[in-house]
């Protein structure tokens, strides 16, 4: 694809799909993951496997996909991190959903070490990314974005540059707040229809065929109809994003009444034992409140 050498740090469900797309495009990719077994499918596709994070530091561009702000700081600034090695990558591209504060901290450390830093969170679950229906929002130096964009384009048909700093972090958090609010609205009206004698399948088929239908509602309605909450994004992860979003709202003095309510409903789902299940399990909270039959 080009003469850039690529490192990929973090090959969980999402990271594995994204790194696999780069490999399929012909990129030279070396991967690292804390659980080595999760790198094996990528190695079978031709990826080299690094034994430590520091072994990625000689790559031109290193993409990072981790689950939390503390993880991003650890793999960049921590012992054995990307920025602590004698040789350092030219560019770090972080595709995780983390706080703007953590992102700014890592950006400052990268710039002090002479490394360009792009924040590039992605929208879409692993299935949607693999199907080519993801979107990436990026912020950081425009010239770095222009250099890296060809790789972002491989992973998502929509790639947007939002500004020179941490703007994309707020965009992604707002996006995830909206995910929760739309899902809560969907489970409420589905439960109402069901309590009135309409099957979940009939109701959601109607919604999906109407002007309100969307790719997102189609995916979530399938989970709700089947009451199958195999996680694409679990309730604990969504709660983290609501914590970040409501924190940003306090800082910026923006009232968020709907988000605040959904935050507590996500917490209720976690309290009912759905922490590790997909956030479509908000339906189970609503069903219990409505007196509908519990899931078997």
Describe this structure in words.
By secondary structure, the chain is an alpha/beta fold. Helix content is 52%, strand content 12%. Helix 7 packs across helix 9 and helix 7 packs across helix 11. The longest helix is centred in the middle third of the chain and has 29 residues.
Strand order of the largest sheet: 3-2-1-4-5-6
Strand content: 5-15%
Low-confidence stretches: none
Give the helix tally.
Answer: 12
What is the number of beta strands? 9
Task: Name the shape in a single word.
Answer: globular
Helix and strand layout, with pairings?
Blueprint: E1 5-9, H1 13-24, E2 28-32, H2 40-44, E3 48-49, E4 61-64, H3 69-77, E5 91-94, H4 100-112, E6 116-119, E7 122-123, H5 126-130, E8 135-139, H6 142-155, E9 158-163, H7 167-195, H8 200-209, H9 215-226, H10 235-252, H11 257-274, H12 282-290
Parallel strand pairs: 1-2, 1-4, 2-3, 4-5, 5-6, 8-9
Antiparallel strand pairs: 7-8
Helix pairs in contact: 3-4, 7-9, 7-10, 7-11, 7-12, 8-9, 10-11
Provide a quick synopsis of the model.
This is 3-hydroxyisobutyrate dehydrogenase. This protein is an alpha/beta fold and 296 residues long. Helix content is 52%, strand content 12%.
Task: Sum up the structure in keywords.
NAD binding; 296 residues; 3-stranded mixed β-sheet; 9 strands; oxidoreductase activity; 6-stranded parallel β-sheet; 12% strand; globular; alpha/beta; 6PGDH_NADP-bd
């Amino acid at each position: 694809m080009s003469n850039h050498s690529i490192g990929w740090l973090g090959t969980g469900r999402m990271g594995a799909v994204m790194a696999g797309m780069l490999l399929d495009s012909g990129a030279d990719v070396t991967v690292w993951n804390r659980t080595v077994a999760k790198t094996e499918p990528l190695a079978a596709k031709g990826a080299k496997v690094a034994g430590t994070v520091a072994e990625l530091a000689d790559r031109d561009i290193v993409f990072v996909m981790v689950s939390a702000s503390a993880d991003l700081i650890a793999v960049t600034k921590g012992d054995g991190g990307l920025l602590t090695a004698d040789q350092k990558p030219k560019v770090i591209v972080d595709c995780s959903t983390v706080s703007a504060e953590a992102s700014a901290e890592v950006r400052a450390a990268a710039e002090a070490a002479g490394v360009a830093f792009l924040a590039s969170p992605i929208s879409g679950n692993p299935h949607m990314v693999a199907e080519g229906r993801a979107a990436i929002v990026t912020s950081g130096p425009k010239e770095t974005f222009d250099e890296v964009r060809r790789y972002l384009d491989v992973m998502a048909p929509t790639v947007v540059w939002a500004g020179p700093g941490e703007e994309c972090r707020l965009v992604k958090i707002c996006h995830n707040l909206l995910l929760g609010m739309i899902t809560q609205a969907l489970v409420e009206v589905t439960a109402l229809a069901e309590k009135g004698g309409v099957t979940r399948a009939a109701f959601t088929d109607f919604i999906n065929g109407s002007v309100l239908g969307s790719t997102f509602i189609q995916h979530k309605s399938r989970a709700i109809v089947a009451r199958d909450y195999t996680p694409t994004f679990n309730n604990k992860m969504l709660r983290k994003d609501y914590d970040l979003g409501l924190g940003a709202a306090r800082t910026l003095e923006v009232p968020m009444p709907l988000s605040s309510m959904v935050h507590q409903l996500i917490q209720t789902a976690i309290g009912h034992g759905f922490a590790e299940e997909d956030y479509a399990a908000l339906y189970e909270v609503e069903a219990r409140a409505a007196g509908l039959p519990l899931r078997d």
